[in-house]
Amino acid sequence: MALLLNKLRLKQLVKVPVRYTHGKDHWSKVKKRRTPKDKALEHFDDFYGNVYGNRWPDIRSALLKQESKYMAVVNNFSDTERIRSELESLGAINLRSLYDVQKENVEFFKMKREAKRKILQENEQNVTEHETSIDQLAELRSLYPANYPDLSELLKSESNEFGKRDQPAPIKLQSIDADLNDVNIDTNRIIDPSVNVSMLHEYVPATKIKGLDDFVLESDHYKFYTKASDFQVTVEKEDVLPFPEHLHVYTFERSNNSRFPSPKKGSTGVSDYYLFDGGSILPVLALDIRLGDTVLDMCAAPGGKALTILQTLMPRVLVANDLMQSRVKRIKNVMEEYVSNVYNTEKMLFITELDARGIDEKDIYNKILVDAPCTTDRHILHSDDNNIFKPTRLKERLKMPEIQSDILTNALKLVKKGGTVVYSTCSLSPVQNDGVVHVALKRAWEESDSVLIVKDMTEALEPLRCMYEFGNIGSKYGHIAIPTLDNNWGPIYFCKIVRVQ
């Protein structure tokens, strides 16, 4: 007891130094526990904040929500009519029916606006002519004395006399070839072809240097885009988004975030419907699947878009390909759950494991889908597993647009004359989207005899604006559906390219 008291007295007399640790919110602690998800969000805030401006906060909020919105693709290898009836009883809407109704509305209001515009133009023209005649008459009156005859009557009489006058002699047209050497050329309006006047700066984010731990010369990553800066591409308008007759896709109206129940097995032993992100249907529709098409899905995993292509009941052959065995296994699992054996027995469906950049089957496929590997902007904000923003995947992330360009270039060289290639990503990045398309178009033109045109689908997509928010960021080629809190699906970028020669 005496020994204990002595120790207590000693502690009171002598202060022993103690090392205190920082609190959990101290910057050093926070920095150490930054996850790949955190790094991805910081990158998006910096990059997409500049690209999408005041719309970025809403897009950001939608991306960060745990649950996104889905569509249900009816499985035609199950009990189609029963499934459709059950989905409609839930309040779900058939997307094709919605599109048809909205298209009629768009055309009606377009005609109404056009008629109104013509009436306004005619009224403005009449008012302008009337005001001009009054102003001219007032100016003439000011030039003549007060006792001069009435000018309005005089103008009328002169107008009548003018019609009686003899017509002037015709003027003889002469060639300018003889005087061509005397023409003075304005050299200030001639563009030197050696000067690069259209850099692809719009595809490169204006970023700031962050901490040294994240420092990387990302500018090196964009250098290959300058190779296509002087290439011009033909763009043609397309006014209809085709819906295959047997493709039935259901969703809930805007602001209705109801969830579809898990699909059950039908009488044929396969699941009733496939659920996937509502944006994923757009590239499939843009592909415009027709009866007898030979289709290649170059990067098919996990298999949702390939399955949707099958549900059109149109392709003669579908090849679903992906690079790695684990990804190919995911495709096989989807097909086993949803597809009848008829596609296997009739040799209509093939699943392959190839590098899409190395596929060399030319002039076989008339429809090719390139759903390219990308940063998967929504997924990486919710999972650290295999996140592309991991430090160990930095080089892979920076090389990604180049890989995307290689895959798309190969697809453009493989597709048959008159065939269609649709390029898509689930990224908001203009670099991975329009930037990749631009480079691939030039490379395909240089490396083959292909003549390609891009389809502007703005008018065709107009009826779907009741369900989708299409980002207006000055895209030259493709279209992007951005996430919103009302309809939280996407992002999905897609671009339709047709080979005409």
Attribute tags:
single chain, 501 residues, alpha/beta, 10-stranded mixed β-sheet, 14 helices, 13% strand
Explain this structure to me?
Strands 3, 6, 7, 8, 9, 10, 11, 12, 13 and 14 form a 10-stranded mixed sheet that branches. This protein has helices spanning 2-13, 27-32, 36-52, 56-64, 80-89, 95-143, 151-164, 281-287, 304-311, 325-338, 342-345, 394-414, 431-447, 458-461; strands at 70-74, 93-94, 234-237, 249-251, 273-277, 294-297, 317-322, 349-353, 367-371, 420-425, 452-456, 469-470, 479-482, 492-499. The longest helix is centred in the N-terminal third of the chain and has 49 residues, at 95-143. Helix content is 38%, strand content 13%. By secondary structure, it is of the alpha/beta class. Helix 12 packs across helix 13.
Give helix and strand order, one letter per element, not per position.
HHHHEHEHHEEEHEHEHHEEHEHEHEEE
List how many beta strands DSSP finds: 14
Beta strand %: 5-15%
Instruction: Describe the global form.
Output: globular
Q: Helix amount, in percent? A: 25-40%
CA distance, first residue to last residue: 101 Å
Arithmetic mean pLDDT: 81
TL;DR?
The protein has 501 residues and is α/β, with parallel strands linked by helices. 38% of the residues lie in helices and 13% in strands. The protein contains 14 helices and 14 strands.
Topology of helices and strands:
Elements lengths: L1 H12 L13 H6 L3 H17 L3 H9 L5 E5 L5 H10 L3 E2 H49 L7 H14 L69 E4 L11 E3 L21 E5 L3 H7 L6 E4 L6 H8 L5 E6 L2 H14 L3 H4 L3 E5 L13 E5 L22 H21 L5 E6 L5 H17 L4 E5 L1 H4 L7 E2 L8 E4 L9 E8 L2
Parallel strand pairs: 3-11, 6-7, 6-9, 7-8, 9-10
Antiparallel strand pairs: 1-4, 1-5, 2-4, 10-14, 11-14, 12-13, 13-14
